[in-house]
Structure formats: structure tokens, C-alpha cells
């Protein structure tokens, strides 16, 4: 095993309001430590807004601006331009938003910022639902998952946000997970060194919303990658696909068994999910192979 040298500078302080075992707090801890103190964050209403807490009692050691739920990317764009006007071009502007404020309510602003290639780094903390308000479904909620608004299981598939962002031909779009910490930190460092619009979607298994035991968050994240439910990959300039894992080796049934939101799922639906993930993995492999063939 290779020893991972971590930046342990405390940018997210203890005493915050995250749930016990919260993967979001762990993920953001490493994101902020990698970004460093010369960073400003935009945080819309979300679990992260609760974790960060109100000013002047924020658990983050960097300036935080909390806009409306739909306006994260627009607020970050304005903040970036204000800093540039003051000559602070080296100060990083990041967004820490949930999937509800990214995939759904904030998507118009997100798409516009990507089209303008705004110089911001957007982190979507993807817990696959509106967990802060009772675990309702979002367009990030996966197929057949039960939520507060889909008690018999969601009948549509999860939106492929990274491919949508890649279609905007932004400099960098990637998926990441704290269950694969070296990969997460490498991607944050890579995105930090670039300019233009960058987005990293981080999977956040939600202890309460997914129905996980307090110590199962990182295991769920690992299983999500190993089944292909959340593959690790990156796309540069909208065309260059790189897969960051060797293969998908775990059956989806083992991933589903960890979660209360899939309790009682029929064998037929489990088989359909397995086929769906295998088709998605094959498609991703084709995209990466196409790029390799044309390089």
C-alpha cells in the first residue's frame, strides 16, 4: 500500500452539525484542505449549508456566501468577477452545492456558467436526493430507489450530469468519491491548477436518506464504484474521457443490500438495474476507447 500524504490543515472545524458518520463532512474536509485558505465558497441551501452553519459561527475557515438555492453558479460567477476587478485573481472561488441545487433547481445557472466558461470550481455533493428536507427524490436519484416522494421506487433513471457538462466542452468535469481518497485529492489538485469552468461531482452516501448504518458510508461509496453505479472518470475539454478504475467487479445486489431505500426490491428490478449499469459501463468504455483511438 502507498502511504497517502494528506494536508491536515483544519479548514473545516470540529463541532459542525453533520450527522454521525457523514461522508459529506469527510469529503469537504479534504476538498478544503486541498484548496487551501485563499479560497471563497458559495454554499446554497443544502446539507452543506447546515454543516457550515451561520456566520459568524461558521465551521469553515474561509469566507462563505450563501445565495438562494437556484443561484449558486451565478453567485460564484459574480464573486469571481468582483475578485478579478480587485486584482485577486489567485483567490479560488468554489461552489459546494447538493444535487438538488445542481441537477435540478440550479441547473439553468449552472449551464449558463459552463457556457460562459466562468473561472469557478463547482463541487456537487451528490447524495442523490433532497436529504435536507426529508429525502425526496431529485433527478440524481437512481432508478427504483424509494424516497419520500417515490414510495414505490423512482421510475426514471439518474441524470448523467457529467456527460451533460462535457457537452458544454468545459475544461474539466469529473466524478469522485471519498471512498477513493487519493483519486479525489488528485482531481481536486488537478482542477485547482486549471482555469475556466470545472466541475467535480462527489458521491455522498447519505446515512439517513439511504438507510445506512453509521459506519457504512464509505463502504457504500466503494460498492457504488465497484458496481458501476457511480464510475470514476474525468472528461477534459468535453472530449477526452479517462476512466479512473480498472473494472466493475461487484454485483449490484450487494450494493443494494446495504441500503434501506432498496429494501424489498424485486428480483426483476434488481436484474434490470444490473443490466442498466453494465450498459452504462460499456458506453463509458467506448467513449474512453474512442478518445484513445483518435489521440
UniProtKB/TrEMBL annotation:
The keyword Glycoprotein does not apply. Keywords: Oxidoreductase, Pyruvate. Gene3D superfamilies: 3.40.50.970. Residues 66-201 form the Thiamine pyrophosphate enzyme TPP-binding domain. GO terms for molecular function: oxidoreductase activity; thiamine pyrophosphate binding. It comes from the Bacteria. GO terms for biological process: small molecule metabolic process. InterPro entries: PorB-like, THDP-binding, TPP_enzyme_TPP-bd. PANTHER family: 2-OXOACID OXIDOREDUCTASE (FERREDOXIN) (PTHR42897:SF1), PYRUVATE SYNTHASE SUBUNIT PORB (PTHR42897). This is Pyruvate synthase subunit beta. It comes from Ramlibacter lithotrophicus.
Amino acid at each position: 500500500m502507498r502511504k497517502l500524504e494528506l494536508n491536515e490543515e483544519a479548514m473545516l472545524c470540529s463541532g459542525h452539525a453533520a450527522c454521525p458518520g457523514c461522508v459529506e463532512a469527510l469529503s469537504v474536509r479534504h476538498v478544503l484542505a486541498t484548496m487551501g485558505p485563499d479560497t471563497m465558497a458559495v454554499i446554497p441551501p443544502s446539507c452543506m449549508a447546515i454543516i457550515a452553519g451561520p456566520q459568524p459561527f461558521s465551521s469553515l475557515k474561509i469566507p462563505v456566501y450563501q445565495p438562494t438555492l437556484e443561484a449558486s453558479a451565478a453567485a460564484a460567477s459574480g464573486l469571481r468577477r468582483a475578485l478579478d476587478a480587485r486584482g485577486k485573481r489567485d483567490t479560488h472561488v468554489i461552489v459546494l452545492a447538493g444535487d438538488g441545487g445542481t441537477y435540478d433547481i440550479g441547473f439553468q445557472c449552472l449551464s449558463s456558467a459552463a457556457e460562459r466558461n466562468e473561472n469557478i470550481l463547482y463541487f456537487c455533493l451528490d447524495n442523490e436526493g433532497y436529504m435536507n428536507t426529508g429525502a425526496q427524490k431529485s433527478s440524481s436519484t437512481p432508478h427504483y430507489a424509494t424516497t419520500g416522494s417515490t414510495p414505490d421506487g423512482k421510475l426514471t433513471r439518474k441524470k448523467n450530469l457529467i456527460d451533460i457538462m462535457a457537452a458544454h466542452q468545459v475544461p474539466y468535469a469529473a466524478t469522485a468519491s471519498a471512498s477513493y481518497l487519493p483519486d479525489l485529492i488528485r482531481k481536486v489538485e488537478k482542477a485547482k491548477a486549471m482555469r475556466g469552468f470545472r466541475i467535480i461531482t462527489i458521491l455522498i452516501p447519505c446515512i439517513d436518506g439511504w438507510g445506512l448504518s453509521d459506519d457504512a458510508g464509505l463502504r457504500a461509496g466503494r460498492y457504488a464504484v465497484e458496481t458501476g453505479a457511480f464510475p470514476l472518470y474525468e472528461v477534459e475539454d468535453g472530449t477526452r474521457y479517462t476512466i479512473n478504475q480498472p473494472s466493475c467487479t461487484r454485483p449490484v445486489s450487494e450494493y443494494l443490500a446495504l441500503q434501506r431505500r432498496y429494501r424489498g426490491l424485486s428480483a426483476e428490478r434488481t436484474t434490470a438495474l444490473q443490466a442498466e449499469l453494465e450498459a452504462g459501463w460499456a458506453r463509458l468504455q467506448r467513449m474512453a476507447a474512442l478518445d484513445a483511438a483518435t489521440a
